Amino acid sequence: MLADLTEYPQLASVYDVDFRRRYSEKNEAAPDLLWTVLCDPSPVADPYRQEFDTLVAEGLRSGLLDNEMRGRLRSSSAEQRYGAVSELEVGRFLSERGFAWLPRPRGRGTRCGDIQLLTHPPAFVEVKAILDRPIEVIEQFISRKLWRVTKMCVKQVDRPLFVQTMIYQVAPDFDGRHYRRWLLRQLSADAPLPRHARYAGRAGLVLDIEVIDSPLTSRESAQIQTPPAHWVQTASYVRHSLENAYRQLPDDGRVCITILRPHLAFKPDNDDMLGSLYGTEQWIVSLGPEPRCVGAKRAPDGFFRPNAHRRVSAAALLKAVRTETGTVLTLDVYHNPFARYSLDWTNLAGAAIRHFVPGDDGIMAWAEPHG
After folding, report:
1. Are 299 and 280 spatial neighbours (Cβ–Cβ below 8 Å)?
2. Residue range 318-362, pLDDT digits in tens
3. How many CB atoms lie within 10 A of CB 202?
4. Is 155 in contact with 127 (CB distance < 8 Å)?
5. What's the burial of 199, exposed, middle or buried (CB within 10 Å: 0-12/13-18/19+)?
6. What is the pTM of this model?
7. β-bridge pairing 123-131 and 255-263
């Protein structure tokens, strides 16, 4: 079953009949949006075919859709495909609002970015798609490796202990030797139990552990009780993408913006972004005769910090709502108050764009509603 792409020549130039036939057979049991566009002959999908056709046409016109991106659009990897589509969506979104930009600016080292806005000063833009599968695979890999290392360490101490491990911040890599040395120090310490500690890995992995006396009588039994690591924040999808994008950002005086485009079943919302970027919200409670909440603050565990990630001027969330006539996009831009080079929000002001910025009083607030 294939859709007729006669009226969508740009789309057909990327996805030929052979590709569409293979994609139809492979994904018919669990169709995604691309399957609907390429394979579903229903006229209900026509607005999305037109949308994809326009994305491809705009990408070709701007130069963003080069041979490398064409290969990613046809990749068997969902991460590659949706990453390329996200870049095309951002390019079209900016062009429709009158922003001038160039594709493929030079980034950090030999890396290339996605878009450079021709503002004053120019702004380097890195686009990242947020997907379910890659981070789940990473979580499972790290969890299994943590379990093996923890089990080995528990076996080496002279009493049965129980270790609960929680992944607080994900990272694409994990130094098992470094963690083993750290964990053995924690397990061998004379400090009273239960004991909490936080591990910060060289590659960005952050763990919270709790060490308690095991109710079991032998070290071997305690090993069985020690569980794999568990995830503690759904907002870590956001954090993982921010970390990956940060490696691309230059440090040469340009304003740097990371734009995240989620393709998730449960998409991040404003609270997820605020927690990921500015820190976990904490409530201050008065415990007098009449307990009450007297205020709130944010913990110093956000992506934006005075001593870290200062190359990024702002992180933005490109939100998509599907309607019968296509996809409606809006952009929320969250400014980094600690950035080395700040973004002037008026340089990126337009319809369906709003900015969360520090005010003269130092309080972060929305500068402009969606318009």
Report:
1. yes
2. 999 887 788 899 999 999 999 999 999 999 999 999 999 998 888
3. 11
4. no
5. middle
6. 0.73
7. parallel
